[in-house]
Amino acid sequence: MPLALYALAAGAFGIGVTEFVIMGLLLDVSTDLGVSISAAGQLISGYALGVVVGAPLLTIATGRWPRKTAVLGLMAIFTLGNLACALAPDYWTLMGARVLTAFAHGTFFGVGSVVATGLVAPNKKASAIALMFTGLTIANILGVPFGTWLGQAFGWRATFWAVTLVGIVAFAIILLLVPRSQAAPEKSDLRGDLAVLGRAPVLLGFATTVLGYAGVFAVFTYIAPLLTEITGFEEAAVSPILLVFGGGLIAGNLLGGKFADRWLVPSVLGSLVVLALVLGSMTFALHSQAMAVVYVGLLGAAAFATVAPLQMWVLEKAEGAGQSLASSFNIAAFNLGNAAGAWLGGVVIAHGPGLSAVTWVAALLPLSALAVAALALRLDTTAPRVLLDAQRTL
Fold it and tell me: Where is the Major facilitator superfamily (MFS) profile domain (predicted)?
């Protein structure tokens, strides 16, 4: 794997820290800025909304740029956004800075996926995407806990100063290591790019991503109450157990990339089946502390085993000028799935069967994603035959 992929992983690491570290600093932010905990929690929702809205907009805006230039521009936005967070004098300025930072998120991973696949041989493309996303998984294991400790020890602004420094370093590494050969993408107009998004397999690929990841976050959002109220762990045990989840993220991410390089379609379908099985059987595993820890790791592995296959699948279906836009839309789809899963889990807890049912309800979502993926494959294989029959009729 070329060193340029590790440069992209460095950028992914910084973005991952920015997205998730705020969860551990909500109390500090709310106290310092004089807002409620629920208002501080909206900083997470604002970021997710920024990813969903910003991914297509920024991809369109940078669509005619050389891809290396686009990635460097995105890292500059990310760095300036975190600097603005560190300097924010009030809540709404912080919210605006978070949204600005989020704009770079979806487009970085979308364009970065295209850049990564262009750096390696055709049989290594999914592994290249997985390696870039390793930066995101390492952010969850190391960056977020360290950033939380730093913010609690020296004030939440110290965390954003540190992430600003990470952004500067990542910018420099990308500038030095990503080759200039990543030139301008195929010429296209906006209408052509949007036409690519309108392809049925691409749209169904987005739907598969949303449903698959909604299953993950329907459970992961509520992992702390699941472990404490059902399994019986003390609250202090949750953070160490989440390290097991992080280890699963790395293993699943790399395995998903390896399998997708050889068998892309079976990897998409198989990873969704495994995710559904893990979520469904977790309903019973949570009643044993030892098995609960094992299943937290399996959940991490099953969750990120889907990422590289789904991203690579959408890239293949969007082959051509609209590839970067489709790739960024799929990153937005992951975040939309995060939000939808968290909402559904909350509905199940507050108005449905209750906390103990969250895992088996969540298992229905990747099964739905599997059905959508099967439909996409059916349409993809029958379309040429339909066209041939029409030509014979004429």
Answer: 4-380
**155 token code pair:** 């004030």
User: Is the distance from CB of 294 to CB of 164 less than 8 angstroms?
Assistant: no
Torsion of CA 222, 227, 228, 231, to 10 degrees: 140
Token pair, residue 381, equals 């294989």
pLDDT tens per residue across span 222-260: 887 888 888 988 877 877 887 888 888 888 888 888 888
Angle at 9 between CA 103 and CA 177, to 5 degrees: 105
Asked if residue 325 lies in contact with residue 193, where contact means CB atoms within 8 angstroms, the answer is yes
**If you search the block for the tokens 């472990």, which residue do you land on?**
227
- Give residue 307's Cα distance to chain centre: 8
Q: From CA 60, how far away is CA 74, in angstroms rounded?
A: 13
Distances in Å between the alpha carbon of 115 and those of 12, 66, 166, 169? Answer: 13, 10, 21, 19
Low-confidence ranges of the chain (pLDDT < 50): 182-184, 382-394
| pTM for the full predicted model | 0.73
Domain ranges of the chain: 1-187, 188-393
Check: CB of residue 300 under 8 Å from CB of residue 248: yes
Burial 130-147 (b: 16+ CB within 10 A, else e): bbbbbbbbbbbbebbbeb
Type and span of the H or E element at 179:
none
| CATH of region 1-187 | 1.20.1250.20
Burial of 41 per CB tally in 10 Å (0-12, 13-18, 19+): middle
pLDDT in tens, 119-133: 888 888 878 877 887
Q: Both tokens of residue 273?
A: 């089946």
CATH topology of 1-187 equal to that of 188-393?
A: yes
The span from the CA of 28 to the CA of 37, in Å, is 9
